[in-house]
Amino acid sequence: MADIDPDIQSVKLAALDFEGPLDLLVYLVQTNEVDIYDIPIALIAEQFLEYVESMTPERLAEAGDFLLMAATLLRIKAQMLLPQPTAGDEEKIEDPRRELVLKIIEYQQFLEIAEHLREHESARRLVFPRGYRDWVEEDAAEDAAGGTREGRGEPGGRASLADLLRAFAALMRQAERDRAHRLEPLPISIEDKVRFIRRHLLGAGRTTLRELFLPAEPRAYWIVTFIALLEMAREGELRLRQGDTFGEVHVYPGKSNRR
Amino acid sequence: MSESRDDAPPSAGEIVEALLFATDEPLTARGLAALVGDATPAVIEDVIAALNADYLRERRAFRIEPVAGGYQIVTRSAFAPWVRRLRASPPTPRLSQAALETLAIVAYKQPVSRAELEAIRGVSVDGVLRTLVERELVTIAGRGEGLGRPLLYGTTAHFLEYFGLTGLDALPRPEELEILFADREREGEA
Amino acid sequence: MSESRDDAPPSAGEIVEALLFATDEPLTARGLAALVGDATPAVIEDVIAALNADYLRERRAFRIEPVAGGYQIVTRSAFAPWVRRLRASPPTPRLSQAALETLAIVAYKQPVSRAELEAIRGVSVDGVLRTLVERELVTIAGRGEGLGRPLLYGTTAHFLEYFGLTGLDALPRPEELEILFADREREGEA
Q: What ipTM goes with this model?
């Protein structure tokens, strides 16, 4: 029943983008106007393969999924060629296309739902919620006078699970990099850093953490500096003081710093 | 400046309007009722219907819409061209077809594993899932029982808000779709 | 849903209302005039006066107020008591990046000591830990074996609720996380 000029068909097909092999199958079933429950598998397999052959090398990554489906189609086609069982046994033998048909139908339904969601997305993009939050008169006046306003941030100002997971993923990558660094033996020891910190303290009388953690150094060196600082603090050789919570940390000589 | 109207106590309608005006998030009828004081959710729904009738008659540029199980006051879509000009930042991009398809499956099959999503779509959903989790449309809904206890995914409240859906049940039921869901039970006989 | 009013093009008044409704900054008459299109600032001021007269007559809960050289829609102060109640659950500030990172480590490594947290994050976590404990996302989970038997921290039930997790095992394992959030860094805060 599907009498389509194969040339036109393949030209059109190759120009189209499909989300995957099932998307392509849905398209072929629809454009050929075949009965989904009685798919002419030979015709569909042929057109499917034509499309796969037309796929450009850039789409190699997706090609695997398409090739897998092509193999399935060819297997079904072969099964269809096997001699049919006698009439009495017929209902006991499953149609080799059955599983595929169910998948296509299910996928097609989700395409419809996706379409439905797309319509909702479009409609929703045309309406806008209230923009300004500090709406009561006094608050607005305060705001105009330079008052602070809560950052609007993400929905509800809440951190989402995605935020949390992203933070951890970033830390893991950082740890990975640090580990890579640590594999090489460090050409610097804690003693080296202790001497470096002492020099700083003696020279200036006091210093800050910012000055001790040299930006140009690899991160692993910072850890050495950090351990050296803790060591010296424990020995009473220096004291660490922070002005306010996020302020600069100052380093002073400690009581035992007499040498 | 002049608050020189009569001093009648504010009506429930006025209070509901003030509350909906004061936030950009949907408020539930129950939450509104609690905030108003002596009102039931049913009264709130009547009040909202009356407000919407007012807005229509008075040609206000906004209306109250049911969304994500609550109510939100939004501009009418006719004003989108002007409001868009106002917004300096470009709107968030539309979801890709792949993202929409995956989201559709998550919405119906939740909680659902990546493997199930891939079986239905016939392609990998790794990148798409990441986008959906990052855009807070999908979240982790637990772990499955199967081998390796795979992560299961589900939709978020933001999903409903993004699409302006009142709830998951606002999605078309399978029987409303043109093609019926395949009768999976028959598979057992084979 | 029904946008079924007459199809007359929106008036300047309606557009100004939509713009003031949806903006997050006060808008000047000049700015509004530019956005509306063919209107002068003087026309805009007339339009705003007319809108305010409407609001007063129709007993709307808001009005347009001149602020900081511009205009803004604000809720009438008579409704402040109700709107305050809406805010009564104080708008907890968004968790900082430092807090999120620390929380993530606690979630994955619990029970974990402060020293371990600091070793991983490379900075002091005192303030951040305090915030997390105050917000009931993290709690003391016991004492370690080491020198001085340091306090160990773990996540709370509220943590699960906050992030919508069904349980701690719903946190993706590192290898699963990699799939979800792999090398996104380069693309910035996607």
A: 0.77
